[in-house]
Design goal:
The protein is mostly helical. Helices cover about 75% and strands about 0% of the residues.
Length: about 130
């Protein structure tokens, strides 16, 4: 059971971090497949300068989740990933986008929850006695 949980944790965490780094780096470069990142931000009603902030936060969260120790920083990174993806989902729904446009953010929010739930005790803020 413990080995299964570790495997689930690492698969979810690596996929989450890959997703955060790839989308974060695209936002930092202001490019993206399909409609450009700048067009997407204006479509959602946000200023383009938000791309740099969101890109930096996503890359920083991925780094925080992968480095050993620092459980408090990991908790903040998980919370940040959840809020970023929840905000993305909400924004797409608010402007009437299709379900297909929600799938990347839905996948990342599910990976965030799975990674957080299955994290090992040495990566938790408070370890059980």
């Amino acid at each position: 059971m413990q080995k299964r949980n570790r495997i689930i944790y690492w698969i979810a965490t690596v996929w989450l971090c890959l997703g955060m780094v790839s989308t974060g780096s695209a936002q930092l470069r202001h490019v993206q497949k399909g409609p450009g990142a700048t067009e997407m931000m204006t479509h959602l009603g946000y200023p383009v300068y938000m791309l740099t902030m969101l890109g930096l936060l996503k890359v920083a969260a991925a780094v925080a989740l992968l480095i050993p120790r620092f459980p408090l920083i990991k908790e903040w990174a998980y919370a940040g990933c959840f809020f970023l993806m929840f905000g993305a989902i909400w924004s797409h729904i608010a402007v009437g986008d299709t379900v297909a446009e929600l799938i990347p953010a839905l996948l990342l929010i599910v990976l965030t929850i799975v990674s957080w739930y299955f994290r090992p005790t040495n990566r938790k803020l408070v370890s059980p006695v």
